[in-house]
C-alpha cells in the first residue's frame, strides 16, 4: 500500500467526520489474479497485511468485497454486483436506514468544536 492510499481514510475522516467508517465498504479488485494464484480473499486478508489495512478492516466492520478485473463471465459479474448490493443493504440496516448526510457531518463538527 502506498502512503497516499493510507492517507485516504484520514482524509475521509477529516472531510466527513469519524462516523463515515460506519458507512464504508472496502472494495478489492484483482480477484482474478488471486484466483490464478489459488487464493481466496479470506486467505489473502488472513496473511501478512499492513497495519493500516488491518485498522481499516476493523473500523469498517470487515465489510469487504472482491471484484475481478478481467472476467468475461457475465454470471460472475452479476454475482459480484449482487454481493455488493447485499453489503450496501447491510450498511443501511446497521445505520437504521439513515444515510450519511451533510447534516450529520455538521452536527458532529459542532460537537467536536465544542469539546
TrEMBL record:
PROSITE patterns, per database record: G_AIG1 (PS51720)
Annotated ranges, domain AIG1-type G: 1-109
Listed InterPro entries: G_AIG1, GIMA/IAN/Toc, P-loop_NTPase
Gene3D superfamilies: P-loop containing nucleotide triphosphate hydrolases
Keywords, ordered alphabetically: GTP-binding, Nucleotide-binding
Highest taxon of source: Eukaryota
Family classification: Belongs to the TRAFAC class TrmE-Era-EngA-EngB-Septin-like GTPase superfamily. AIG1/Toc34/Toc159-like paraseptin GTPase family. IAN subfamily.
Protein name, entry field: Immune-associated nucleotide-binding protein 8-like
Amino acid at each position: 500500500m502506498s502512503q497516499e492510499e493510507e492517507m485516504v481514510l484520514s482524509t475521509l475522516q477529516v472531510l466527513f467526520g469519524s462516523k463515515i467508517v460506519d458507512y464504508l465498504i472496502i472494495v478489492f479488485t484483482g480477484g482474478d489474479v488471486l484466483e490464478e494464484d489459488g487464493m481466496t480473499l479470506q486467505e489473502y486478508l488472513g496473511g501478512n497485511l499492513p497495519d493500516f489495512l488491518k485498522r481499516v478492516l476493523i473500523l469498517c466492520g470487515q465489510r469487504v468485497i472482491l471484484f475481478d478485473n478481467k472476467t468475461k463471465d457475465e454470471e460472475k459479474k452479476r454475482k459480484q454486483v449482487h454481493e455488493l448490493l447485499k453489503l450496501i443493504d447491510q450498511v443501511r440496516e446497521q445505520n437504521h436506514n439513515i444515510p450519511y448526510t451533510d447534516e450529520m457531518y455538521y452536527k458532529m463538527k459542532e460537537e467536536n468544536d465544542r469539546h
